[in-house]
Amino acid sequence: MYQYRDTRDLVRFVYDASLVLQNEGVQGIDRFRNNRSKYTTPDYYLYVYSLDGTNLFHAGMPELEGRNLLGVTDKNGKQITELILRAIGNPNNPHGWVHYTWWEPGKFYPVPKSSCHFMVNTNEGKVFFVGGGIDYPHEEKEFIRIIVDDAVERINSEGASAIDEIADPFSEYNYRDVRVFVFRSDGTALISPVVNKQFQKRNIVDCVDEAGHRPFEKALERLNEKEAAWEVFLAKSRYQRGLIKKSLYLRKAYLDGNLVYVGAVTDLPQPP
Fold it and tell me: Residue-wise over 72-81: b if at least 16 C-beta within 10 A, else e?
């Protein structure tokens, strides 16, 4: 499912902590507090919340314990706890991934973060969510698979009302350089991959990459036989001279009975 070891290690770390809570209930939180250093690593740390947004344990920032953070937003306006609560109840997102901006313990500047979460029901009848995140995360293909698949389900079931939610920059469908986009079969955009307003005259299917290839056209050909299509293409790097590989993920959806295509683009995972 994940191409990077850091991602796999984080999921295992948070899942193991969820088993402690499941087996020990509230006493598991005491165990975390008594072994705080065990739940803080150079790469990530553990936290536990009740479903009303109250922090019960925070290995990286103990000053947050006991505070209700339900209304806290990151610098981009994302309501982090609300996104987490939606993620842990979303079958398309089995590890409860949420992407936002936070800060490193002891530092003062914002950093990009991806966090995974598990909901825990204890024998005492308590319900918590436990999570941990990576600063400066690798861009996993699974991250865009989650949001595109979820957007497809919403469009199929909710119709036009889903479009505004998917386009909302504060939603889970937009993070860092990733944006879920939607276009009609003639190539015109309902949600552009670039601009906030519809850009009806631009035919996405005709777009070419830096090598002259047509990734959207090729992806549509694959969708004639498959439910989902991945396509690799070349783009200019923002941080280094030369070209880098990107991944396009594309799926079909039906908006009020009309065929549309839903997709997103991310960096192609590199070998560790």
Answer: bebeeebbbb
Write out pLDDT tens, residues 208-256: 999 999 999 999 999 999 999 999 999 998 777 789 999 999 999 999 9
- Sign (positive or negative) of CA dihedral 218, 180, 144, 266: positive
The backbone torsions φ and ψ at residue 169, rounded to the nearest 5 degrees and listed phi first, read -65, -15
- Contacts of residue 7, Cβ cutoff 8 Å, sequence gap at least 6: 134, 137, 138, 140
Single-letter amino acid code for the residue at 217:
E
* Residue 124 main-chain phi, psi, to 5 deg: -85, 0
Tokens of 25: 């209930």
Give the Cβ contact number of residue 41 at 10 Å: 15
Nearest to 263 by CA among 181, 203, 200, 193: 181
Contacting residues for 126 by C-beta, under 8 A, at least 6 apart: 25, 26, 50
DSSP 187: S
